[in-house]
C-alpha cells in the first residue's frame, strides 16, 4: 500500500520520494462471503443415497416446476430494447438452461386465464394519401334555370393559381363587379337615339382600362427593378464575403508560417547562445572528466534536476503517484470518516461562565448589586492610579541622529497703520504708472526722429504713384465694358443653342421611347415564350413523376399480395404443425399413463412374489441373494457410470464445435422466425373475419 509523505508529497527528486510502501493488513475477501467448505451439501446428499440403498429410507424426489416457455411465461424469455429510431432489430432470445434431471410437469391449472397469442399492431387505410394529389376535390353543381350565379365567374381560379384568394384577386373581383354594374347602365342597342351616348361611355371605359393596365405594367417593372437590385446586392455581399474569407484564410496561413518561422529562429538562437556559453567556459578546448562528487554535492546539477532537452522527463507517469483515497474523494468516505470522530468535535458544547452576582428569581440584577459592582470598579481604578510607579527612562538601544531641517525664510508682510498711509500708497502706484507711460512715449519719439528721412522718402513715392493709378483705373473700365459685351453675346448664343438642343432632344426622346418600347415588347414576348416552354417541360416532368409513382404503387401492391399469400401458406403450415404437436403430446401422455399403470401392476405382483419368497427362505439363502444383488447392481452401475463419464469427456470437444456451428446461424433464423410470426399474426387477424363470415354462410 502506498502511503504519502506529507513533507515531500510534491517532490520529483529521487532521494526525496513522495510516498513509501507498507504491507497492508486488510483482508481482500469481503466479510459477507462465507469461508466455509462448500462440499458439505454434496457429502450430505451422498449419505442420503447410501441410506436409501442400505436401508428402507426413501430419498425425497426433487420436483421441478414447469417453466411454461411456450405458455404464459413466454414473455420472460424475450427482450426488445427501446431505441429512438425505427430499425428492424432481432429479438434477443434467452434459451432455457439444460438440466440433467427430468422435469415432472404438474397438471395445468384453470385459475390462470389464457393469454392471446395475437394482437393488432396497426391499420392500413383504403384511401390513397400521397404527395401526387394536386387539386382539392370540387363537388358537382346544378345551375337553376334563368340564373347566372356570380360564383361561376371565378371558375378560372384554381388551387395554386388564384386560390386561396389574396389582395390582387379581391381587387380583380371588385373590378369585375364594377364592370358588370357599368354594363347594366349602358343604353340598349335597340335604341337608336342612345347610340352616341353608348359610344362615349365605352370610349371612356376603354381609356380607363388602358390607364389601369399602364399602372400595372409600371408596378411590375418597379418590382422587377427592386428584385434585380436585391439580387445584385446579395451577389455583391456574397462575393465580398468570399473574398474576405479567402483573405482571412491567407492571412491566417501567413501568420502561422510567420509564427513557425519565429519559433524556429528563437530555437536556433537559444541553441547558438547555449553553444557560445559552453565554448566560453572551455576556451582552450580541453576535455574534462566528469566529477561525480561535485555533481552529487550540487543540488542544481543534472543528477537532481535533469534537463528535458537531454531526453529525461521526470514528470512522466506522474499520475501513478497521485493519492487517490476513497475517504477523501467520495461522499460516502467522508461520511464514514465523520462517523469515526468523537461527538465533541462535530457537536461543540460551550458552557457559559457563572456570574457571581445577586439576581432575583426572574433573573434581573438588584440595584444594590449593580451599585456595589460600580463602586468596586472605581475603587480598583483609584488604587491602580495611586500605586502606579514611574519607571525610569531606559537608554536607547540603537542611537540614531535625527536630521534638523533648515529654517524657512520669513514671509514679508506689509503692515498698514491707517487709511492715510493706504491713500499715499495708492497715489505712489498711480505716479509710477504715469512715469512708465511717459518713458514709452519718449522712446517712440526718439525712434521717429531717427527714421525721419525714411518716412519722408516713403511719402514722396506714394505721391508719384497717383498718375499710374488713374491710368489703371481707365484700363479697368475698358476691360469691364468688353467683358459685359462678351457676356451678352455668349448669352444670346446659349439661348439659340438651348432652343436647338430642345428640338433635337424632343425628337431623340420620341425615337428612343419608341425603340425602348419595342425592345421591352420583344423581351416580354421572348420571356413569355420561355415561360410557356418551361411550363410545358414542368408539366411533362410532373406527368412522368406521376406515372413513375403509380408504377411503384402497383408494384408495391403486387408485392404485398404475394407476401399475403406466402403468409397464409405459413399460417396453414403453422396450424398443421401445431395440431401435430398436440396429437403427439396427447399420445405421449396416454402412453405414459398406461406404462405407469402397467409398471405399478407389475411392481405389486413382484412385491407379492418377493414377500412369499421372504417368508420361505432361510438365513443362508438371504445372504446369498444380498451378495448376488450387490454384485449384479453396484459393480455394473459403477462401471457403467465410469464409461459414461469417459465417453462424455471424449465427446465434449465435438459438442462444443457443433454448438458453435449451429449457433452461428441461429440469430438469423430467429430473426426470420420473428418476422414470420409477426406476419402470421397480422394475416390471422385479417383472416379471422373472413373465416367467420364463411362459417356463417355454410351454416
From TrEMBL:
The keyword Magnesium does not apply. One of its GO terms (cellular component) is axoneme. InterPro entries: CFAP91 (IPR026720), CFAP91_dom (IPR032840). Keywords: Cell projection, Cilium, Coiled coil, Cytoplasm, Cytoskeleton, Flagellum. Pfam families: CFAP91. Residues 585-612 form a coiled coil. It comes from the Eukaryota. Residues 123-275 form the CFAP91 domain. Residues 669-699 are annotated as: Disordered. It is found in: Cytoplasm, Cytoskeleton, Cilium axoneme. This is Cilia- and flagella-associated protein 91. It comes from Daubentonia madagascariensis.
